[in-house]
């Protein structure tokens, strides 16, 4: 999934982003409200993790603007103020969830995944294709009883292909949904990752290359 993390404390932002990336998420970081709105205007994020106390454009105003503009992104608001009144205020601004600081990374990632599931069609808890099973929550993939040694990015690509249920996915779409804004669109990153993923999945092949169109996963 694609996540925008909006947090003005750079060290904390980098730490949280690193944790989310190890969970297979593509994470962009904005350090202020104006940058957050600019990024949200051009990228379809699944979830926006929004610090409430931002300099410049306050987090409340960011949340209002996203809601008023009909943004499809789910918003998880973070703040050091954790009273019931604060939580109610945040939700009434248009946030979908609210998490007070300090927070546990495990809870943050679980809430992000829960919000992402709400942003699209309901998916099963475990994705399946032929003899392949992928558990997004546990970050595990098993084929024919064998756990596959996948990197976070390989697991994220596989999860996306399985989630769209056999639809052809272009390299550009994979780059948009699985990589963050730092990815170079002119590299062979997607092709190389798909190649490594195929090798680890083994035979019979499950990922098909559709000429001049992209990739899809299938099998019987």
Radius of gyration: 18 Å
CATH topology of the largest domain: Rossmann fold
CATH homologous superfamily caption of the largest domain = Response regulator
**Beta-strand content bin:** 15-25%
Output the CATH class name of the largest domain.
Alpha Beta
Shape: elongated
Q: Give the integer mean of the pLDDT values.
A: 89
Q: How many DSSP H or I helices?
A: 8
Give the low-pLDDT segments: none
What structural class should be given to the helix and strand makeup? alpha/beta
Give the tally of β-strands. Answer: 11
**CATH architecture annotation name of the largest domain:** 3-Layer(aba) Sandwich
Distance between the termini: 26 Å
Going across the major beta sheet, what is the strand order? 2-1-3-4-5
Short description:
With 220 residues, the chain is an alpha/beta fold.
